[in-house]
Amino acid sequence: MNINSTGVTGMKIDNISDTEYVVSELFVDDIVNQRYCVFDFEATGIIPETEHITQIGAIIIEHGRIQETRTFNTLVKSPKPIPEPVERHTGIYNDDIAYAPLLHEVYDDFLAFAGDCILVTHAGYEFDLPLLAKECRRSGLPMILNKCLDTKALFSYLHPEIEAIIWTDYLIKHYEVSDRDLKRHDALADSILIGRIFLRMMEEFLARDIRSIAFKDHVRVKRFQVVPLA
């Protein structure tokens, strides 16, 4: 997987091994007063180069809170069938997307929703952005160019001493974030969960009197180990 294929401007991502990459040249000023679009994709599988998006979910964070009335959520018809293990994992079945819009029919709406926000993902540098870049190349769509923050990289920036792979569940436990009211592996619900984690992360930045994010040095991030779904 080549995570340099994110296609997003304003940062640099370099592979250093099969298990790690480094992020640099990422700068966000005045983090408190920025508008953020937290997004998540579900897909037919976990390899960005070969899979297709089946759901897009997104929320807006502004004034330090999730704007609960402003959400984006759509299923996407995939040209590739969803394998049965992925159907069970995500709760999205082939019948659900049979009459869903194609990506090019909803992509402009997603871009309009994101607007000029800074994007926020979890593991987006490894999965969501390479997947979207691949989909855009397939369909002749313009890749979104907004600056993008990844909660894995942000946590590694705050805690370089931690050697663990930063899974969502790790951050839920670390920041004591509740997910009991959310359906996991649903793109909109996962966007809300990522947003909650991101807000707790912002509290930690401010508690350390960090008002701007500046990856002046390489931030080392451990990549997820791909485990096929059974």
Automatic annotation (TrEMBL):
Residues 35-207 form the Exonuclease domain. One of its GO terms (biological process) is DNA replication proofreading. It comes from the Bacteria. Keywords: Exonuclease, Hydrolase, Nuclease. CDD domains: DEDDh (cd06127). SMART domains: EXOIII. One of its GO terms (molecular function) is 3'-5' exonuclease activity. The keyword Cytoplasm does not apply. GO terms for cellular component: cytosol. It holds the Pfam family RNase_T. Gene3D superfamilies: Ribonuclease H-like superfamily/Ribonuclease H. The keyword Zinc does not apply. InterPro entries: Ribonucl_H (IPR013520), RNaseH-like_sf (IPR012337), RNaseH_sf (IPR036397). This is 3'-5' exonuclease.
